Amino acid sequence: MVDLVALETRAGGICELCGGTEGLSALVVAPREDAAFCCAICAAQIGGETPDLNHWRCLQSAMWSEHAAVQVLAWRMLTRLKSEGWAIESLDMLYLEPEVQDWAEAAGMEVIHRDSNGVVLAAGDTVVLIKDLPVKGGGFTAKRGTAVRGISLVADNAGHIEGRVEGQRIVILTEFVKKR
Fold it and tell me: What tens digit of pLDDT does each residue of 4-57 get?
């Protein structure tokens, strides 16, 4: 059980990641019962919302926190943002004690894919497009109502799945599909 008062006192009443002051709450860092004090923006983006790259530059200082839960969150978000040069540089500088590194790499950051209605998607599911989607580089439009069978999940992005439409393998945004 997380002691919210102690956590807020430790954090000084600000988000331990970005220093924000709005919508503060404890964010349990799975699989342990330890937590970090986070603002609503950080919590939402850690939870799967598309990350605002400029917001996460705060990790370049947060990663040096003396608190393991904050270090783990910083490592996980930097890893998620590793397509950005600054994130890679920060990861290269970041040292975690072996037990903290194991915690950071442990379950708890699984990407959960959800359709437009919030239903969890799994590899192999069939989905239906809910709007016409122009296929970039494909030269055609995938029509609303098209069934996409045997989808694959994009491992590092909860907003993307892959499937075959008109014989071409394409990436589809989960917000434009519903599970059949």
Answer: 888 889 999 999 999 999 999 998 888 887 899 999 999 888 877 788 999 999
132 contacts 144 by C-beta, under 8 angstroms: yes
CA distance 131 to 6: 48
Give the whole-angstrom CA distance, residue 29 versus residue 161: 26
DSSP-derived secondary structure for 31-63:
TSS-EEEE-HHHHHHHTTSPP-TTGGGGHHHHT
CB 41 within 8 A of CB 2: no
**Taking the mean position of all CA atoms in its chain, how far away is CA 77?**
8
143 to each of 112, 129, 146, 154, how far by Cα in Å? 26, 7, 6, 22
CB 177 within 8 A of CB 160: no
In the 8-state DSSP scheme, what is residue 124?
A: T
Alpha-carbon span 49 to 54, nearest angstrom: 14
**Rounded Cα gap, residues 10 and 35, in angstroms:** 11
Give one DSSP letter per residue of 141-180, joined into a string: EEPTT-EE-S-EE-TT-TTEEEEEETTEEEEEEGGGEEE-
pTM for the whole thing?
0.61
Question: Per the structure block, which two tokens stand in for 20?
Answer: 């924000």
